[in-house]
Amino acid sequence: MTDTLPSVENSHTVENLLTVENLVVEFPGRRRRAPFRALKGVSLDIAPGETLGLVGESGSGKTTLGRAILGLAPVTSGSITFEGRPLVGLGRAQRRAAGRDVQAVFQDPYTSLNPAMSIEDILTEPLTVQGVAGRDARARVRELLDAVGLPADAGARRPNEFSGGQRQRVAIARALALRPRLIVCDEPVSALDLSTQARVLDLFIDIQRRTGVAYLFVSHDLMVVRHISHRIAVLYRGEIVELGSGEQVTDAPEHPYTQRLLAASPVSDPHEQRLRREQRWAQAARAS
User: Fold this and answer.
1) Cβ pair 51, 229 in contact under 8 A
2) Is 272 part of any domain?
3) What tens digit of pLDDT does each residue of 242-280 get?
4) How far apart are CA 163 and CA 94, in angstroms?
5) How far apart are CA 280 and CA 173, in angstroms?
6) Structural domain of 159
7) 140 with 31, same domain?
8) Residue 29: other Cβ atoms inside 10 A
């Protein structure tokens, strides 16, 4: 992983692209149990061209937050605005219009692509839904394949003819098709091996440098998030417990939960990995 992040102006000096304020998401309880509150008053913002990393363990609420932004999870209270326009409570037509600006890349490249469709059809679909003519759509597909480093003849092939990393490149191309301002990336490299992860992360950074797109990058791996994020928000049991620059959160984490996440992150240096393992044991001993 060699690419460096494009610079972003301080978010306090730039009008926010996305603003989430006091967001609460509840799911109905089963068998007369009380509702489960997945998000408990979460607030954050993302500036144009910025990557905000959202990190937390399974069950922390990070995927729920991404789905709420995409209109795929119910919002109990609070607000989500994109360039000042509300995203909560939109009708189908309004949500489709918002989809031009806010797209997603999901975790599993094996299930996020329709195996019965050619790559060209997969990439053309969001364009035709938005009314783009066939010739223009096909020209845009060629641009997208080039942008994600796939050969021009990839459009005629089907997803099962590609590796996991290549399929995720197709998924990224699909998200870029409508030239969005923000992409919600939900664990987009966790299903890939380490070397493929590195190449896909560098692709995300390169695309951001060329297009100015912003990312909400969701992951359970703090070191993956560090590589790609300008700022990092740490989510624990539905609440943000730490928020700061990528270097601040990963080099000098203040919250004990962030410290545990950092200690659990795998590293290639055996000595560093042993020290982290000992640190986890010490933390577990103190907690018991």
Assistant:
1) yes
2) no
3) 999 999 999 999 999 998 888 877 655 555 556 655 555
4) 36
5) 39
6) 116-179
7) no
8) 10
